[in-house]
Inverse folding.
């Protein structure tokens, strides 16, 4: 894991977390109750899974 990999994986994880947070906020709004701990934990879980998936390979740097 070099600096290029860390930058690409971090960017991908950040984008994934943001997309997940927006999805959770949208769904929770429809249901009428946005709980911020749920939004943050869902986004964090998505970012961790993204980083773990990036270990298998990143098309951006392959």
């Amino acid at each position: 894991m070099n600096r290029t990999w860390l930058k690409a994986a971090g960017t991908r994880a950040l984008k994934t977390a943001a997309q997940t947070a927006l999805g959770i906020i949208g769904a929770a709004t429809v249901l009428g109750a946005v709980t911020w701990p749920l939004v943050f934990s869902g986004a964090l879980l998505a970012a961790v899974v993204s980083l773990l998936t990036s270990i298998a390979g990143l098309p951006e740097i392959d």
Summary: Residues 3-54 form one domain. The mean pLDDT is 92.
